[in-house]
Amino acid sequence: MAGAAAAAPMDIDGAAAPPAFKGKAPLSAAAAVKSSPWVEKYRPQSLADVAAHRDIVDTIDRLTDENRLPHLLLYGPPGTGKTSTILAVARKIYGAQYGNMILELNASDERGIGVVRQQIQDFASAHSLSFGAKPAVKLVLLDEADAMTKDAQFALRRVIEKYTRSTRFALICNHVNKIIPALQSRCTRFRFAPLDGSHVTERLRHIIKSEGLDVDEGGLTALVRLSNGDMRKSLNILQSTHMASQQITEEAVYLCTGNPMPKDIEQIAFWLLNEPFSTSFKHIADMKMRKGLALIDIIREVTMFVFKIKMPSNVRVKLINDLADIEYVLFILLKLNFDQSYPRLIIFCC
Ligand SMILES: Nc1ncnc2c1ncn2[C@@H]1O[C@H](COP(=O)(O)OP(=O)(O)O)[C@@H](O)[C@H]1O
Ligand SMILES: [Mg+2]
């Protein structure tokens, strides 16, 4: 492949492309941005663009301004802006030097003890060129640090201490309990909570406006609801729904994600509470087939629905308890890949 490319004369204007070449022409920079996933296209470029977490962002911003950035440990669920915040900080500190001053390692890179001893230590120990008064401090960004082995984390503890004068470390993870206490105590910790609905809505409105999308209020509410505070998820759903239909309505969003619609859940709860078991079972199985719904999604949504309807608290407790049992058994079966046993499972659980 590489040999063929080297042998072929360089084709600049494309008009004289070899006839044998049938692939698509490479995308221009503008076209590449246009077709890029919206999660990347709308990744906050500066700290001011980061939605929510104002207190955290302002603190980090102030520390950066005062040149007192500590080692950082950002943790919390996915899609809440951890990586974006650090990248914005790095862009702010280094500007055009960004590429030289930051070592970024994420889950796709090997991050065993060897990498800590070699790559990270080499980067941290190298002298940075600085033409200003003060030598600039470098940044090592360890994204998804909870995937690092324990040995690597212990080795990192020593490296952090040794190179504190020249290098700052930013660790990002979902599960802080997977980071050894010795590392945690060397960093300033910030928890990124799931974004609340109003922040997701505001950011989505901005993107909807920039893309000129046709989204009604129901569609927007569905996007916010299904995202559960995960901004990445909301953008992915928005983009895939936009690809599937011109108008983004509540129905289009639910259809695109395969989640049961609120009105379907209402109907299912009505059957379960009012119809005899066999009729209810038949209706649900029928709806599941017709709409291609997953039983686990139905159970989860019905559980949430039980919280919303008025009923004596002892009945509510019993229902939620039983639904939790069904969800648990389903989860185990899904893990074991026992899809076919769903109907028998419901009978068993009921
Ligand atoms: N707080 C936020 N403000 C604005 N956009 C966000 C925020 N959090 C996440 N996003 C969007 O979701 C995408 C993924 O965010 P990212 O920072 O990688 O999340 P995390 O590292 O917490 O999993 C970003 O590209 C951005 O489009
Ligand atoms: Mg991330």
Automatic annotation (TrEMBL):
The keyword ATP-binding applies. Residues 68-198 form the AAA+ ATPase domain. It is found in: Nucleus. One of its GO terms (biological process) is DNA repair. SUPFAM superfamilies: P-loop containing nucleoside triphosphate hydrolases, post-AAA+ oligomerization domain-like. GO terms for cellular component: DNA replication factor C complex; nucleus. Keywords: ATP-binding, DNA replication, Nucleotide-binding, Nucleus. Belongs to the activator 1 small subunits family. NCBIfam families: PRK00440.1 (NF001679). This is AAA+ ATPase domain-containing protein.
